[in-house]
Amino acid sequence: MHKIGVLLSGCGVMDGSEIHESVITLMAIDKEKAQAICMAPDKNQNQVINHLTNSPMNEKRNMLIESARIARGNIKNIKDINPSELDAVILPGGFGAACNLSSFGSDGEKAIILPEVEDFLIKIHKLRKPIGAICIAPNIIGKLFGNEKVEITIGNDQETASKLEKMGAKHISKKVDEIVIDNKNLVVTTPAYMLGKGPAELEEGITKLVKAIIDLIKTTKNSEKLTGSSIG
Question: What is the pLDDT, as a whole number, of residue 232?
């Protein structure tokens, strides 16, 4: 069974992981008979928002504890996950991907990635394991792998796309039900709520992303077997 990490950043679109995107991702992984390994940093969110009024709240919330709501408690600190034990990782969107996991929401192309997230994803990338990113989460991929001209999409928002391209990434405009597959860098992205108006619109693109991640896992594993047999 393939093990796919799901990197969360809290619980709620305005200050953590987007719940619809996260649940659809978990469902798509389950339908593919793969195992989702949920994880999050054990750190406080950079902001807490009242989702009824969209107003800031004067309180602290921990990303790991809040993400556990989505994961039904079955979640680990990202620092306790060994990248070599996973086959891939997927990052749902939500503003937490731009204010907790990175500072893209405030700093744009000069964003800083949370150190443990940067360390984890760079290790995953070096191990040639696929990475999926949904909605605004590709900002993290663009920042970390822009020097490799990684191909990504956040939909068709030109202002956001231009910031990603300033990082070195190549942005490709796509519709809500489409994906971009960067076969060289083993990265798959989809716009989701950057364009979508509801869960039904998101489901097709996210399902395609998960299927593409599974295909990349199989392709890379087969390639490794062939390389190993030719060496032997």
Answer: 40
